Amino acid sequence: VRGGRRSSVCLEGRWETVNKHKPWIETSYHGVITENTDVVLLDPPLVALDKDAPVPYAGRTHGGEICAFNIQGLESPFEAVVLNGTSGEGQLRARGLVDCESQKEYTFIIQAHDCGSGPGGAEGKKSHKAAVHIQVNDVNEFAPVFRESEYRAAVTEGKIYDNILQVEATDQDCSPQYSQICNYQITSARTPFAIDRNGNIRNTEKLSYDRQQQYEIQVTAWDCGQKRALRSVSVRIDVKPVCKPGWQGWNKRVDYEPGTGSKQLFPKMHLETCGGPLSSARTTVELQTGHIGKGCDRETYSEKSLQKLCGASSGSTDLLPAPSAATNWTASLVTDSGRDSELIFTFDGRQAAKIPDWVVPQNLTDHFTIATWMKHGPSHGLRAEKETLLCNSDKTEMNRHHYSLYVHNCRLVFLLRRDFTQVDTFRPAEFHWKLEQICDKEWHYYVINVEFPVVTLYVDGVTYDPYLVTDDWPIHPSQIDVQLTVGACWQGGEVKKPRFTQYFRGSLAGLTIRPGKIESQKVISCLQACKEGLDINSLESLDKSIKFHFNPAQSILVMEGEDLENMNAAVRKVSYINSRQFPTPGARRLRISTSVQCFGEDTCITIPDIDAVVMVLQPSEPRITISGAERLTRPESDFGAAGGIALFQDLHIISTVTRADAAAARQTGETRPRQPEVLEEIIHNLDYCDILVLGEELGPEEESLQVRRGALLGKHLDATNSTSGMSVYGVDSMSSYEQVIRQVRYYHRRPAHLTERRFRLTCSELNGRYTSNELNLEVSVLHGSEPGEHVGHAIAPPQYMQVRRPSVVHDLYAGHSSAVPSAATVVIVMCIAALVVVVVLGIYRIHLTHQQEIRLEETAKEAGTSWDDSALTITVNPMEEPRAEEEAGSDEEDEDEEDEEEDDEITSAESDYSEEEVDIQLPKVERQSRKGQNWDKARISY
């Protein structure tokens, strides 16, 4: 067919279309789709044309029809569908929902395909490639959101600001219409502020600090599609008074929880200069602790324990110990009981103490040390008298001072007179120091090291040489006894009535003398070291331009810098630290003083000083609990055996604190709940455990308390004993005290004369600040004539194995309780068996008793011993078999026993240095004429 759109041929009586032409589409398309819909509006519409005319009613697919539109690019989220194959109409659709916020535009290629010519003709043909550009229309689906959760600003009273601060909101919509913020609004009513379209806030009237110091307003925002922010934002505006130079942002009180380490004092503090240009600043932070104990929070262990803890040389004598039955010379002195159990003695010019002769250190050679804590102020009156701390003078006849330490006109003077027996030459005798510390009414630690003729004074660990040394002749030898006194000097001669003179006015603590050795500076520093002070957090982050300096006690910190911001950052790092486990509660005063220099100005701003306090909270007080047997019964043979009997073999020492269960309190939901108490076991050190003899004191010839040599080795512990008991002291763990006290043994040479003994054990921490309960132990003797001696141990345990614990400790040691079977059955059986021979044995025992009394009287006369048998009571045991031969030789055995005991003592003394596990008897002292002065204060040396 010529001139037609399509050509067709007749094959076997049928007409077939020949596909000669390609489909035709536009070269480019532009489309628009709204997000969250699937139909694309194209311009021009999607239509494909084909010149191959279709044959109606052909029954086959013809090349003039459009079968498909193909999109090139698998990532494109669109697809094209044929709406009418004959007319070539098509439609572009989204395969899924499109999001403008993810992608605003798409570009891809589209191509049309016709349907081909059938089985015998050519394949389907493709149109040319056309570009499709699609734009995604936005929907206002997001509301404005503010960039900050809260805004803050500060203004000065009495000023009108054009702009105080700016708030800003954003919108996630993709189009400018919906993503831009078109309006801000203050929603709070009646506020003196306004806001513009850009979020700038200003005040509409002058603000007054006295009327209102802070404003809080709410601001909301709208986008250009009129969608409002879901949440308003809070804007806080602080009103500051008219600028005054000084430190701002600090709290007057800082609470310190014990055991929390270092705590920043001023974490938000900064220096306000009111715009003044500063060239440099100098800030001094001072921690004032003069009212706390001995100048600051120090360990309040006993002096001997603290010396042991610091590694001081052994052999020191404490001249001002805690008053007790054994150390009663300090009982008449006035002590300061309000200083966290620190032992401080106050002298007002009327008190003094004589040191007993058995305490006085002997043979002070050319090397010795005197140490003391002293707090002293200026003397009153025009003519100041000598104030004696320590004096060793003639007891009678004359008034010579052998050595003394005194204060005169705020000068510290040490007098040391030598004897003619040493060197008969003019020698240094008086050493003078003039220091501000002597009269500043503050606590200081003084140590005098004597290496004759050199004498060195340490004050708070810093050495000072005497500014004046006076020579004198030695003292003529005499047989006059000397008297050592504290708080005054004893004038025994040259007066009608011996008396004290040159009284001291001030406070003393820890006065000790150590003969034969001088103390090292390391030990001196340890003994006077403070446990609290100032610190700097993150020292490595401190700017290098900041110069800082601590005093030795770390109670004063000085910082200097040229940059104000660096100085502010440095002050914010200043911290307080207290390393004591149980610090002294109460307030510590803080003072911060600052001086600044300005650029090119003669007058500069003045920064006022600020005062604050560090409040150390009350620590959880420990409860020291000791538990063990309360009754102990042993055969008399055990008491006289080598080493005696162990008194506290099952001792247990624990410490607990009571804490409130905060978690349980929160679960109740009450405003002020009743908080249940929870016992929590803690670990800390002890410094004393005393074993006191109750009733009559120990007889030094017959009985004693002993401890093994190896028990003290490797521990920071020492021990002393006397007829009043034994004291184990030193700063060490509770387990170390347990190990030592478990090995304390009681020995009696003549247990037959002993019926019972009672002892009391107490332990303490921090020089008696925390004291344990009292554990009373009653020791009974099981004599050979008692029936209990014949009870078989396999059948019934001996009576001394019965342990009765205090009820207060039973809950803590429930696992240690044990049931003791009764021996009554065995005793009854033996009694019934013995009844058969009661009559015979009774008659025979009466005869033997008469014979024994005759022998005792004869033996007593031969030995020169006067027996007092007025109260002698002889108990006849009908169950005991007669042992005539043993009784006949009892007197000779008694004499042999005494000889053997003397031999045993010699053997034990000789073997003390050969075997470590041999029981030793600690040094004992003879009983003094004054009751209670019988403690041997010399520590045991091995």
UniProtKB/TrEMBL annotation:
Source organism superkingdom: Eukaryota
Q: Which gene encodes it?
A: LOC101075381
Tell me the ranges covered by the Cadherin domain, including all copies. Answer: 25-146, 147-247
Q: Where is the composition biased (Basic and acidic residues)?
A: 924-942
Indicate yes or no for the key word Manganese: no
What coarse category fits the chief subcellular location reported for this protein?
A: other
How far does the signal peptide extend, from start to end residue?
A: none
**How does the entry describe its membrane topology?**
Single-pass type I membrane protein
Query: What UniProt keywords are attached to this protein's entry?
Result: Calcium, Cell adhesion, Cell membrane, Cell projection, Endoplasmic reticulum, Glycoprotein, Golgi apparatus, Membrane, Postsynaptic cell membrane, Repeat, Signal, Synapse, Transmembrane, Transmembrane helix
Record's subcellular location? Cell projection, Dendrite; Endoplasmic reticulum membrane; Golgi apparatus membrane; Postsynaptic cell membrane
What's the protein called, per UniProt?
Calsyntenin-2
Q: Which GO terms describe its molecular function?
A: calcium ion binding
Region of interest (Disordered), residue spans: 875-942
**Where does the chain cross the membrane?**
823-846
**Composition bias, kind Acidic residues: at what positions?**
887-919
Where are the coiled-coil regions? Answer: none
Similarity field: Belongs to the calsyntenin family.
**Could you give a single Gene Ontology term from the biological process aspect?**
homophilic cell adhesion via plasma membrane adhesion molecules
**Example of a GO cellular component annotation carried by this entry:** Golgi membrane
- InterPro entries in UniProt: Cadherin-like_dom, Cadherin-like_sf, CLSTN_C, ConA-like_dom_sf
